[in-house]
Automatic annotation (TrEMBL):
The active site is at residue 99. Residues 20-266 form the Orotidine 5'-phosphate decarboxylase domain. Its EC number is 4.1.1.23. This is Orotidine 5'-phosphate decarboxylase. Belongs to the OMP decarboxylase family. Type 2 subfamily. Pathway: Pyrimidine metabolism; UMP biosynthesis via de novo pathway; UMP from orotate: step 2/2. Pfam families: OMPdecase. Keywords: Decarboxylase, Lyase, Pyrimidine biosynthesis. The keyword rRNA processing does not apply. PROSITE patterns: OMPDECASE.
Length: 281
């Protein structure tokens, strides 16, 4: 790596300056309709542009959900590319939620797509799935390091179905999720102020004291708002790791559009609740 700032360094600074809230950009068909937009490319463009206009200058992190753009084909991906560029040039960080995961040789191509500086979809970080084996992610880990980017690895997801895989106990007595967290701690060893290799850990999960969340990396926490978790739950779920949590809210903010002020007020409300929860912890 060439003296460039790491994702962990940029993220820590963004969290300090703007607060840790991550707003998800999830253009569900139902949200497009609620905003009075058609479920087509023009609706997608208007929706995405409104979120960027309202929040890019004040929110630290955005998490576009790639699926909602991909469903419109290449024109949807073009809208996503534009949003990524605009968000980053406004000083926000972009975590692309594409949840990629495949055998190493294919993983290398996914990594080129999202983690190579010359790609139009280059993002500060990418969500990835370790369920083809953590080692299959190596091309993404390597390219992220080379380009000052990061990863968020699915460890303990917010959905109830995740438990049958993630809580499964291996031959050595450790759970699958604990093993993934262990790999991340190793990636981040010695990094300051924060490593670049984070975990996805749902805010919906209740007491996680059985897990060592001290991976010296960020913990992306979806589940606040539409999935039922609240900002006030964060200290109980994350314990001492709460200061490394990047809480994601998607529909909970987006349902306040298309009014730009409505979106801003909703994001500020969540940001304030998160601040109170984290500082009081
Ligand atoms: O464990 C996970 C991993 C990712 N997600 C994604 O986060 C958002 C949540 O949206 P809300 O509208 O705030 O519920 C969405 O893009 C999911 O795909 C998750 O929910 N849980």
């Amino acid at each position: 790596m060439s003296g460039q700032e790491t994702f962990g360094t940029r993220l820590r600074r963004a969290m300090d300056e703007r607060g840790p809230l991550c707003v998800g950009i999830d253009p569900h068909a139902s949200l497009l309709s609620a905003w009075g937009l058609n479920d087509d490319i023009a609706g997608l463009e208007r929706f995405t542009g409104t979120v960027v206009e309202a929040l890019a200058g004040s929110v630290a992190v955005f998490k576009p959900q790639s699926a909602f753009f991909e469903r419109f084909g290449s024109r949807g991906v073009a809208v996503l590319e534009k949003a990524v560029a605009e968000l980053r040039s406004a000083g926000a960080l972009v975590v692309m939620d594409a949840k990629r995961g495949d055998i190493g040789s294919t993983m290398a191509a996914y990594a080129e797509t999202f983690l190579h500086k010359d790609s139009p979809l280059f993002s500060d970080a990418l969500t990835v799935s370790p369920y083809l084996g953590y080692g299959s992610l190596k091309p993404a880990v390597d390219l992220a390091r080379e380009n000052g980017a990061g990863l968020f690895v699915l460890a303990l997801t917010s959905n109830p179905e995740g438990a049958e895989v993630q809580h499964a106990v291996r031959g050595d007595g450790r759970t699958v999720a604990a093993t993934i967290l262990g790999h991340l701690a190793a990636e981040n060893a010695g990094e300051t102020p924060l490593g670049s290799f984070g975990a996805v850990v749902g805010a919906t999960l209740g007491d996680l004291s059985a897990y060592d969340l001290a991976v010296n990396g960020p913990l992306l926490a979806p589940g606040i708002g539409a999935q039922g978790a609240t900002s006030a739950d964060l200290p109980a779920v994350f314990g001492a790791a709460v200061r490394n949590v990047v809480p994601n809210v998607s529909r909970g903010v987006l349902r306040h559009g298309p009014d730009v002020m409505g979106l801003r007020e909703a994001a500020e409300r969540f940001a304030g609740e998160i601040r109170v929860a984290v500082e009081g912890a």
